[in-house]
Design brief:
- It is a single chain.
- By secondary structure, the protein is mostly beta strands.
- About 0% of the residues lie in helices and about 45% in strands.
- It contains no helices and 23 strands.
- It is globular, with a radius of gyration of 20 Å.
- About 40% of the residues are buried.
């Protein structure tokens, strides 16, 4: 039976050999644990059918999240409101290397640049008659964007842009077969590869998420060892790549935290970060963002009344 706090599969220290004279042997405790620091419900911002895309933090640890309609809410680390910004369909957010806020619009897929005070700096990329699924920014500054053409035949594409917005390539990623097929998130991994969490696309059934790896050029990488996890990842599953190369994913059932070498450090029941708040069964996704310490994370999840559940979780050594 797993504890309600956390569990880790690997240890940085070798385990001792069981004494054959002993009746029972208990392995040493895992060196890392994920602990919930705070849980709150945000009722001052309502989310529509688009749900929520990615969220982002600035250098001071302030959280930026969009409602998918017209508002970006900025929260301090104590979750108090700092300010509100106006933007068109703020669905997916990230900061580039220059500290500019990049806001992704889902319908009529578009990326725009803003200052942290909400000043519009220009359009970076757009794709009419398309839905933005997810995007990420590599350490090099390049953008990787997954988007789906809405006109038949329905095709999901991967686009790579330079830091300045010049097109490097656009290539087919996959073709959704069912209405439940969805891309949940994309990250750049420690070895400069791409990691994509998705449902369907011939990789998984409609209830579970699959983890797919690609090269920086967008080639599918096969024969990769699966991510170690406590159970199959229930959809949706959204990822976060940390500056030290570690990776975190939030699923309906678990929060998993992996080392840069893809070893499982710790896992936490997702319900522990919900504190009884009912999540929205039809919400498109939740979202993760890291504070500057790289060990404290924001977890945002749409609730069934259109409000947002927010929690702060932290990876700690025992």
């Amino acid at each position: 039976m797993l504890s309600s706090a956390a569990f880790a599969q690997t240890s940085d220290k070798p385990t001792r050999t069981p004494d054959p004279r002993a009746t029972y042997w208990t392995p040493p405790p895992a060196p890392f644990v994920i602990r919930v620091q705070r849980v709150a419900r945000l009722a001052t911002l309502n989310f529509g059918a688009l749900g929520i895309g990615s969220i982002a933090t600035d250098s001071e640890g302030n959280l930026y999240l969009g409602d998918g309609l017209q508002t970006v809410l900025v929260l301090a680390p104590d979750l108090s409101e700092v300010r509100r910004l106006r933007a068109l369909q703020p669905f997916a957010l990230a900061f580039n290397q220059r500290g500019e806020l990049i806001i992704g619009q889902r319908v009529q897929a578009t990326l725009r640049r803003y200052t942290t005070q909400g000043e519009f700096l220009g359009r970076l990329w757009e794709q009419p008659e398309a839905l933005l699924d997810a995007f990420t920014i590599a350490p090099s500054g390049d953008f990787y964007i997954l988007w789906t053409r809405v006109n038949p035949p329905i095709v999901t594409y991967l686009t790579r842009l330079s830091a300045e917005g010049q097109l490097i390539f656009t290539r087919e990623f996959g073709r959704p077969r069912r209405s439940t097929d969805a891309v949940h998130g994309i990250i750049v991994t420690a070895d400069n590869q791409l990691g994509v969490f998705l449902t369907g696309y011939d990789f998984s059934d409609s209830a579970h998420a699959a983890y797919v790896t690609l090269s920086a050029e967008g080639d599918l990488l096969l024969r990769r060892a699966p991510l170690p996890s406590l159970d199959r990842l229930q959809a949706p599953t959204v990822p976060l790549s940390l500056p030290n190369g570690e990776m975190v994913a939030h699923s309906t059932n678990y929060i998993h935290w992996w080392s840069a070498e893809k070893q499982l450090r710790a896992a936490l029941f997702s319900d522990a970060a919900r504190a009884g708040y009912p999540r929205a069964e039809l919400a498109r996704r939740s979202a993760l963002a890291a504070q500057p310490d790289g060990r404290t994370l924001y977890v945002a999840e749409v609730l069934n009344d259109g409000s947002l559940g927010l929690s702060l979780v932290q990876l700690q050594q025992r």
